[in-house]
Specification:
The chain is mainly alpha-helical and 455 residues long. Helix content is 71%, strand content 5%. The chain has 2 domains: 196 residues, no CATH class; 162 residues, no CATH class.
Length: 455
Amino acid sequence: MTQAIVIAIVVSIALADELSVFPIRAASMRWGSLAVLVLPFVVLLLVSHAWFRVRIGHADFARSVRRADRAILFTRLGILVVHGVVVFGFGMLDAVRGIVGDLVLVDEALTAAPALLAVVWTWVMMYPTERAISMLGDGARVPSRGSVVTDHVRHDMLLYLVPITALVGWSEWIDGGAWALPEWGRETIRWGGVAVILCGAPFVLRAVWNTTPFPEGAMREQLEGLARAHGVRYHALRVWHPRAAIANAAVIGPVRFSRIILLTETLVDRLPDDQIEAVMAHEVAHARRRHLPWMMGGLLSVLMLAWVGAWRVVEWCAGSLMGIEIDAWASEAMLAGALLPAGIVSLFVFRYISRRFEYQADAFAAAHLSVGSDSVTESGADTMAHALLGVAHLNHLAVEKRTFRHGSIAGRVERLYRLAGAARWRTPIDREVLVIKGAIALLGAGLITWMVLGA
């Protein structure tokens, strides 16, 4: 969820020039006036911090953790709302440009800074809860507040912020350059640069995250053979060393020459070999089934459809039903306002698709582990289920707790055991995901056709 908020903060600034509803003219702005636009963030954090301490301090440990998670979620959503109001409603980007000028990425960075710093402060607020969870480990060293917050910034913010900022800066440089090229030539350069940035983004990870090559040995050979068996190529298999003792894995990168597969140090050191293989198979499934591009395509298509749909509905209600005259300013205000319901719809669709992709990756791992059978075996499902339970145990995560993208461990384990006896590579979730991908393809093709026709 944090990653989605960080992305929304940056993307909203990229849209600010097109959707300034009540722009304060840059010529009239000074540092004192700009501080007024920052004040709502300060007030929000002060109120949230006070509420956080009162709510968390009067409950047992398990309830405290749940309350802390909810409080932080609501605070971050509040940060996003305040950011949208000051950017779209009160022209904060124009205000910054009136002071520092329209410099590539400088004005955007200063505009995003209050919201991003507010997100960082939520990790400061969350530290006592994370520290208490860390103390549950068997003799685990409890990291300091500074190291925990720094770790969150590196792993939960910079991984997404750096490539998105590069995309925004590249587009701004292309638009502002004196290019002696036709429009199609400029767009070719623009999209070529976008492709290079996206494909090279995983290499940023190696500079931002603390990773080392996976050690040589039988385990590495087993994991490499797994990837080869399913036709998944990658640039590197690495061990990730976050400061906190967490068990996690990830596959980063859309193309094979830059794709990196990560397994955390805690996962490699504390899970049995067969469960490490199960986790690796889960990550290989994401690459084999191309979940990332399908996810991005579905999210963008739904966002565009919901945005335009909400705008048209509001415009029709105001004009046809209420008889309000729709001028250029009113239409722009409605277009900006339609971002909120469109964003909410997109988040729910994102959650639905993300969970189905996770279920498919779990089923893929169970199928991989069902060696020598045409159906998913109880042994294969059981190994993957115990890998999930092992990860939950190492992360001190309640198996009933539902996360935004992945659902609950208990629900995923139950689904795995129901797979026993299903056709090995044609499980029910495979058919469900096929329908989802078909819907995304049709929706994307329709939107592209609609935009090409000039609608």
